[in-house]
Amino acid sequence: MPDEDKIPPGPPGTTGTILAPGQLKIGDLIRFDGVFFPVRDMVAGRGGAKVLIFKGREPYTVAGPTLAYRPIDFNALSGTLRYIRTE
Q1: DSSP secondary-structure letter at 57?
Q2: Which phi-psi region, left, alpha or beta, contains residue 74 (left: φ > 0; alpha: ψ -120 to 50)?
Q3: Phi/psi at 68 (nearest 5 deg)?
Q4: Which of 23, 8, 16, 14 has its CA nearest to residue 62?
Q5: pLDDT computed for residue 1 by the predictor
Q6: Domains and CATH numbers, the chain
Q7: DSSP class of residue 77?
Q8: Cα separation, 38 vs 31, whole angstroms
Q9: Which residues of the chain have pLDDT under 50?
């Protein structure tokens, strides 16, 4: 796999995915200049675009696929063993 196809690591406990504007959710982390900002709110833009709203940063319009980071949900991973202690 060429290096340009690799997704750069995000904050600990997150995984990066390239998402279409319609797949983005509130709480997703978007990277700007090495700093990750959580999406606080979003509104519809023209032509299927989304306008993402952040705290401490100006809004950002997403019209195409974007790299977003989400917390890893360990319970949703198939084949994961869960240890439950009952005493």
Answers
A1: S
A2: alpha
A3: -130, 150
A4: 23
A5: 45
A6: 3-74 (2.30.30)
A7: S
A8: 9
A9: 1
Residues 6+ apart with CB under 8 A from 24: 39, 42, 50, 52, 62, 66, 68
Q: What is the pLDDT of residue 75?
A: 62
Report the amino acid identity of residue 42.
M
Give the CA diameter of the chain: 57
Neighbours of 62 (CB within 10 A): 21
Look-up of token digits 């997150």 = 14
Q: Which residues contact 41 (CB under 8 A, 6 or more apart)?
A: 26, 53
Q: How many residues does the chain have?
A: 87
How far apart CA 17 and CA 19 sit, in angstroms, is: 6
